[in-house]
Each structure stands twice: as C-alpha cells, then as structure tokens.
Design brief:
By secondary structure, the chain is α/β, with parallel strands linked by helices. The protein has ten helices and 14 strands. The protein has helices spanning 18-34, 56-66, 84-97, 114-121, 131-143, 176-185, 199-212, 258-266, 286-296, 314-323; strands spanning 4-8, 39-42, 71-78, 102-107, 169-173, 188-192, 218-226, 228-229, 232-233, 241-247, 252-255, 272-278, 282-284, 304-308. Strands 1-2-3-4-5-6-7-14 form an eight-stranded parallel barrel, surrounded by six helices. A three-stranded antiparallel sheet has the order 11-10-12, with helices on one face. A two-stranded antiparallel sheet has the order 8-9. A hairpin with a 2-residue loop joins strand 8 (228-229) and strand 9 (232-233). The chain is globular.
C-alpha cells in the first residue's frame, strides 16, 4: 500500500468544548505517529461553527511536541491573508525546533465566510499581492533564490548552518491550473479528491503534473471512513451532500449545509453559482476501502494517500486510522 497521511480540520460538535476537540486532534496525531503514518496536516478555517483549526502554525508546533516521528504541518496556510516572509520565518523556526519534521502546505481558498475574510484583509488592502505573486515570493524565500537586486535577497530566517536549507512545500488544489502551477514551481501537490471526486479530472491532473515534474510528490486527499469491522456495521450517520459556490472568476467554496450557504451569501454582494453535490465518502470495512483506493489509483501514478475524515465521531476516526495504518 502507498504511504498514508492524515488531514485534520479539528472538528467540534455543539456539545464539545474547544479543549475537548483539540485533545482529540492530539490523540489522533499520537495514534498516527505510533502506527507509521507519514504526515499529519492541520487545516486553517476562520469563524466556522464545526471546525476550530484557526492557527495551523500554532497547532503544528504543539503536535510536534506531542509526537516523535510523524511529519507535521499545515494543510494548509491560507496564503492570501499573510505576507510570505512571516510564514517562512514561522515554518523555518518550527523545523529547526523539531528535528526537521515540518511540512508547509498552502492554499488559495479563503478558509471562512466573507465577513471574517474582509477583516483579515483589512491591513493588506494598500499593498495587496495576488496569490500567484505571494506563492512565488514564498517559494523563493524558502530556498533563498533571489538575485542580488531583489529587496528579499539576503534575508535570514532561523535556518543557519542547518542540515536542511528549506522546508517541503505543497500546494492544495483541485484544478488543473493549480496542479500545473505546483509543477512549474517544483513543489508537491495535495489534490482534494473530497471536493472534486471526478476520476477523469484526477487522472488529467496527475498526467499534467508528472509530465512537467516527474520527481514531484502528488498526494491525494480522500474522504474515507472505515465504518465496519468484518460484517459488523459501526454507528455511522453523515449527510453526504454539500454545496459548491463558484464565483465569476472561478474561485470555489464548499459548504456543508443550505443554512451555511444562506449565511455565506448574506455576508457578500458578490454573485455565486450554487451547485448541490454529493460527497462521495469511501466507506465500508478495511478491505472495501482499500479496494476502492486501488480503483482510484488504477494508473499507479499517485504517490501518497491523505485521509480526510469528515465526520466528528472520534471513535470512528480513531478506528479508521487503526484499520488503514500503513502496516496493515
């Protein structure tokens, strides 16, 4: 089986405290560490009711202190809200504090509703960079690849006489454009199959990436839950529909309920095309889930699986991590 990793959004239920939800993220990461998972990435969201991962850099550092071998990182930092220099400074410092176990994945999505996103952007309005500009600056800062005339040339981070001169960078995405952008930047890809579950689109993205950057790492984040042990079905209830909002310029936002869509649209004057979709969660016993993964990887081009478990059921999530461990 391919290497397996985890994407965790730190879900929280209406009956939980924040500390309880965060404790479950820690327990899940420690279990993954014990079972030989490759990496554990934590998401960034703002002002959402059902997830509380607002600061992936802080949660990353805490999880690094609670684990021994697992790579930990962001999945991802929403780059539009920050200056690339600050991000690189943070992740270089964490990498030096953790025996070089840090990964940096960045995303294009806003990570929240319009109201909070406008607040996050307030101080950036006068000197606003596009995502593409920020992404290029971030990658150049990571490797110190500037000519002498650049204002960024010679800037120092925590990496000085280090065993590693940079941290691994990944771009989150579901579009062909994002995959090509990652390949041209020579960084890894984390493809959100839980958002775009079209097999043909995945294979087109794989071929586009590998033809441009054969040695690059293409990770596929899949919505998967082991919901049975043998013939015994575990308690499992989840609405498998979601809503996709597409702006006029092609930006995509995925929401879980119609109420969330109404709330989102009430906070903006922008026009969106709203499409109801079915989230195709891969579920069943261990053998059934692994068989489905084999079908998705029928061209044998995927480098790594990343489990996205979109259900706030801690016992079910822990069972899934145990059942799909790389050693099994």
């Amino acid at each position: 089986m391919l290497p397996v990793s985890i994407l965790d959004q730190t879900p929280i239920t209406k009956n939980q405290t924040s500390q309880e939800a965060l404790k479950q993220t820690i327990e899940l990461a420690q279990l993954a560490d014990q079972l030989g998972y490759t990496r554990y990435l934590v998401a960034e969201h703002h002002n959402l009711k059902d997830v509380i991962g607002t600061s992936p850099e802080i949660l990353t550092m805490h999880l690094l202190n609670q684990t021994k071998n697992l790579r930990i990182g962001s999945g991802g930092v929403m780059l539009q809200h920050y200056h690339p220099l600050k991000i690189i400074e943070q992740f270089h410092l964490m990498d030096e504090l953790s025996n070089h176990r840090v990964d940096l994945a960045v995303g294009k999505a806003p990570g929240g509703y319009p109201k909070v996103i406008e607040i996050l952007k307030e101080e950036l309005k006068e000197h606003y960079f596009s995502f593409d500009e920020k992404f290029e600056i971030l990658n150049r800062l990571n490797t110190q690849n500037f000519d002498n005339t650049s204002k960024y040339a010679g800037l120092k981070t925590a990496k000085r006489q280090s065993e590693t001169s940079s941290v691994p960078v990944y771009l989150l995405g579901t579009s062909l454009n994002s995959v090509i952008q990652a390949a041209e930047a020579k960084v890894g890809v984390i493809y959100a199959f839980f958002i775009n579950a079209e097999q043909e689109a995945l294979e087109e993205a794989l071929e586009a990436y590998k033809s441009r950057f054969p040695e690059g790492r293409f990770i596929v984040s899949i919505p998967a839950m082991v919901t049975a042990v043998g013939d015994n079905q575990l308690p499992f209830r989840f609405s498998q529909r979601h809503f996709e909002l597409i702006s006029k310029d092609g930006r995509r936002t995925v929401l879980n309920t119609k109420a969330q869509v109404d709330d989102y649209l009430s906070q903006t004057d922008e026009t969106f095309e709203v499409t109801e979709k079915r989230m195709h969660i891969i579920s069943g016993n261990k053998e059934e889930v692994q068989s489905k993964l084999g079908e998705i990887n029928r061209k044998h081009m995927i480098d790594e699986w990343m489990l996205h478990m979109p259900i706030p059921n801690h016992k079910l999530r822990m069972n899934t991590v145990r059942q799909l461990a790389p050693a099994n």
